[in-house]
Amino acid sequence: MAEEVKLFGVWASPFSRRVEIALKIKGVKYEYIEEDLTNKSPLLLKYNPVHKKIPVLVHNGNPIAESVVIIEYIDETWKHNPILPQHPYDRALARFWAKFIDEKCLPALWNSMWSKGKEREAAIGEACEHLKTLENELGDKKFFGGEEIGLVDIAANFIGFWLVSLQEPIGLELLTEEKFPKLCKWIHAYVNHTAIKESLPPKDKLIEALSARFGAASK
Ligand SMILES: N[C@@H](CCC(=O)N[C@@H](CS)C(=O)NCC(=O)O)C(=O)O
């Protein structure tokens, strides 16, 4: 049966880009549908009635929401070029770190970028602590997944591209070579990986769009 794979996303979203990276790693062809989050389509609301968020992957008519859940689904459906490790313990560790990124790192990084005053100061302190934890977890590996990109690398795409693209233009000095040499080395390998390179948004357009939307809101 011919596969039907559709992705509802937003070009500037690190979450929909995560799914695109996973599909590219697997070499799965897909139809991409850009959503307007200010005017969500009836299809998005139908496919993700609980969260009403992108990304949503629709595979042969079956919708799947939440980026990490989608990546695991992709990995189980197309088994070549594995994204999660094979051993149950290693799989558990990969899920643990992906969860740490989503629940701890991303909120602190987001608030470091866009909140104000004392809240911003506190967020920067917290974000530094979390980045240190990730730096230690990465150690001397090329990727969090080892020699190849894995779940944790894909989950960390906000750090690998969004944070490093935006921090300087918005006057934030967070992820520096001096403080995080291993993460900086990882970022270099990450953005030069073929599947990643093909899945990242244009940097200038991203800076412009996010600064206009969230920078203005935080003033
Ligand atoms: N935990 C979700 C987060 C997805 C998410 O936050 N999507 C945002 C865009 S970046 C969204 O659709 N927001 C619409 C809304 O909140 O109304 C995932 O990993 O997929």
TrEMBL record:
Residues 3-82 form the GST N-terminal domain. Transmembrane segments: none annotated. InterPro entries: Glutathione-S-Trfase_C-like, Glutathione-S-Trfase_C_sf, Glutathione_S-Trfase, Glutathione_S-Trfase_N, GST_C, GST_C_Tau, Omega/Tau-like, Thioredoxin-like_sf. The keyword Thylakoid does not apply. Pfam families: GST_C, GST_N. It is found in: Cytoplasm, Cytosol. The keyword Transferase applies. One of its GO terms (biological process) is glutathione metabolic process. It catalyses: RX + glutathione = an S-substituted glutathione + a halide anion + H(+). It is an enzyme of class 2 (transferase). Keywords: Detoxification, Transferase. PROSITE patterns: GST_CTER, GST_NTER. One of its GO terms (cellular component) is cytosol. Residues 87-214 form the GST C-terminal domain. Its main location: cytoplasm. SUPFAM superfamilies: GST C-terminal domain-like (SSF47616), Thioredoxin-like (SSF52833). Coiled coil: none annotated. Its EC number is 2.5.1.18. One of its GO terms (molecular function) is glutathione transferase activity. Belongs to the GST superfamily. Tau family. This is glutathione transferase. It comes from Acer yangbiense.
